[in-house]
Each structure stands twice: as C-alpha cells, then as structure tokens.
Design goal:
Layout (H helix, E strand, L loop, with lengths): L4 E8 L3 E8 L2 E5 L7 H4 L1 H10 L6 H21 L15
Antiparallel strand pairs: 1-2, 2-3
Length: 94
C-alpha cells in the first residue's frame, strides 16, 4: 500500500528546527540541531531513509520537496547563529 506523504517545516527561532515527512502512521524527522540519531541530523541521512521506503506515493516529488525544505531550514538555522555540520546535499535524485 502506498501512502500520501506530507512534508512540513517547523521553526521556533533559536529553539526548534525540524522538517517532518509524515505518511501512513510514520513520521521521519530531519532535526539538524537536536536530532536523536546521526541519520536524523543530516540531510543525506533522512534522504537515504526516504529513498529506501517502498510505501510512499509520488516518492520523487516527496524527496524533492524534502530537499528544498531541508536546505531552507539549514539556511535559516545558520542565519540564527547555529552551525550545520552535516553534508550539504546538492545533487538530484539518484
């Protein structure tokens, strides 16, 4: 079964920086400031998780949306004085 995914950015300046991808009853978080795992703290870590999912409808569009929101979130986080230590994913979908 394929689930429609929803990508959402939540920013509370100086406190919370998250992009969430929600589909079915699952949520995947990109949280470069306070992520619990290495995967959740990097753009590429979450990208690998999304690429591996077989249950997301329109996966390419979801990945593009996620990458755009994640890059914008990192720019905002850095403009608020934080340093993003993960790789900056610049490529397209492989």
């Amino acid at each position: 079964m394929l689930f429609q995914a929803h990508v959402e950015t939540v920013i509370v300046p100086k406190t919370l920086y998250q992009v969430t991808v929600t589909f079915g009853n699952k949520k995947i978080f990109f949280d470069p400031k306070d992520g619990k795992s290495v995967m959740s703290r990097t753009i590429d870590g979450v990208l690998e998780i999304l690429k591996g999912r077989k249950d997301i409808k329109y996966k390419e569009g979801v990945i593009t949306d996620y990458l755009n929101q994640a890059r914008a979130l990192v720019r905002r986080m850095e403009s608020d004085g934080f340093i993003y230590t993960g790789d900056r994913h610049q490529g397209g979908i492989q």
